[in-house]
Write a structure and sequence with these properties.
Elements lengths: L13 H52 L6 H6 L7 H4 L2 E2 L2 E8 L2 E8 L2 H4 L3 E6 L4 E5 L8 E2 L2
Antiparallel strand pairs: 1-2, 2-3, 3-4, 4-5, 5-6
């Protein structure tokens, strides 16, 4: 006959559980701001890249059609297609892109939407010159700091 031994199960005490939860909370509060900032930087980089894409598409459109487009949708609806449909819709990578033709070319704004708008993400601007400027806390314009 086999004798069954009583298992010695050691459970965590309430104090040990509270210490473990406190350590997890401390680690999360240290890591979370860095993760949010990294995401913001990535979205801002995507916005700058998309502004360059739109600006180049406008320049190519002007070369082929002898005028700048009237809207972003003109760049997606033309043959050849200068922009994909997502970017031409005006919203991509947590930014809203606004396009306006002007007397000497065009102006494009990229403004953060969603959670980026609440975290002081940068707003961007470019025109036919191709220079991209930025501003924190409001719509950027031609006289703002050059984005880098």
């Amino acid at each position: 006959m086999i004798a069954l031994k009583k298992n010695n199960i050691k459970a965590f005490s309430l104090v040990e559980m509270m210490i473990a939860v406190a350590i997890i909370i401390i680690v999360v509060t240290l890591v979370l701001p860095g993760m949010i900032r990294a995401r913001m930087v990535a979205y801002e980089g995507a916005a700058i890249a998309n502004l360059k894409i739109i600006s180049n598409a406008c320049q190519l459109y002007q070369i082929n059609n002898f005028e700048f487009p009237d809207s972003l949708s003109d760049l997606a609806d033309s043959e050849p297609q200068y922009l994909d449909d997502v970017l031409a819709s005006g919203n991509k990578s947590r930014y809203r892109f606004s396009y306006e033709p002007s007397d000497d070319g065009f102006e494009i704004w990229a403004d953060p939407i969603g959670f980026l708008a609440t975290f002081n993400a940068r707003h961007f601007y470019t025109d036919a010159s191709g220079a991209i400027t930025s501003r924190i806390g409001g719509q950027a314009g031609p006289d703002d700091e050059v984005a880098g």
